[in-house]
Specification:
The chain is of the alpha/beta class and about 250 residues long. About 45% of the residues lie in helices and about 15% in strands. Helix 1 links the parallel strand 1 and strand 2. Helix 10 packs antiparallel against helix 11 and helix 11 runs parallel beside helix 12. The longest helix has 17 residues. The relative contact order is 0.15.
């Protein structure tokens, strides 16, 4: 499996608190079958408190230690880029990172509200030749209120990443129901852990999500969301997805 959203870098954001915790997160991920974990520190935290060179060095050091202790896992580097009007310029300046230096970029929408610059900013990112992957849309108020907004972005070539915990109910019944709706309406393309610690509700094990999603979309699609699609994203390969089912379209609930 391939996890493209993980707060595994220590003392960087609200994820891993120490080097030991980072390595334990990697152990848990490797034991559950994850081959590559994408470190996605919050852009805001890196910009305000650290630097891109710092997280590049930390990723390299952790990979060396992972190899030393014999884990079958590799860390790649990206960012969870919060969406604001500066994002396209920050990408150009090298302060907003894409996924493993490839054409995909993980973007977190505002959790609340619907600023009028959202669409234009995302399209400006696309005009740079990048493909936005929208992080945890199931927890974003704008999408909860208007799923067709997400459908429109997907129709324009964007992808969405749901969180394992949302599929199994970590974020509550309402978020879980909406996540299942996104799955049934073909608005969820990849699942990731969004892990913040080696244990507890936000651990890095993807398998519970694969099992839960299989009941909704079938085993083949569930496996693709944890294996084939995120692997293609990490490799910078093109991905074709089915058209989303809008609210007005019939669906078997």
């Amino acid at each position: 499996m391939y996890d493209i959203h993980a707060h595994v870098l220590y003392e960087t954001d609200d994820g891993a608190r120490s080097r030991e915790e980072s390595l334990e997160m990697c152990r848990v991920a490797a034991r559950s079958g994850t081959k590559v974990m994408l470190a996605t520190p919050h852009r805001k935290d890196v910009t305000e408190n650290l630097s891109v060179s710092h997280i590049v060095q930390q990723t390299a050091e952790l990979n060396a230690q992972i190899s030393e202790i014999g884990l079958s896992l590799t860390l790649a580097l990206g960012m969870e880029n919060h969406l604001d009007e500066t994002l396209p310029d920050e990408i150009a300046a090298g302060r907003a990172l894409t996924i493993d230096s490839g054409p995909y970029i993980l973007i977190e929408m505002p959790f609340f509200g619907r600023p009028d610059w959202i669409e234009d900013t995302l399209y400006r990112v696309q005009r740079r030749g990048l493909i936005p992957i929208l992080a945890h849309p199931e927890r974003i108020e704008a999408f909860q209120r208007d799923p067709d907004m997400l459908a429109g972005f997907i129709e324009r070539g964007m992808l969405s990443q749901i969180t394992v915990g949302s599929i199994v109910g970590t974020w509550g019944e309402e978020v879980m129901r909406f996540t299942h709706l996104l799955l049934r309406r073909r608005m969820a393309h990849v699942m990731a852990s969004d892990t913040h610690s080696p244990t507890g509700l936000r651990n890095p094990d993807l398998m519970p999500g694969v099992g839960a999603a299989a009941y909704i979309v079938g085993a083949s699609r569930a496996v693709a969301m944890a294996v084939h699609i995120p692997k293609a994203i990490l490799n910078g390969e093109p991905i074709e997805v089915e058209s989303p089912i809008r609210r007005s379209d019939p669906i078997s609930e």
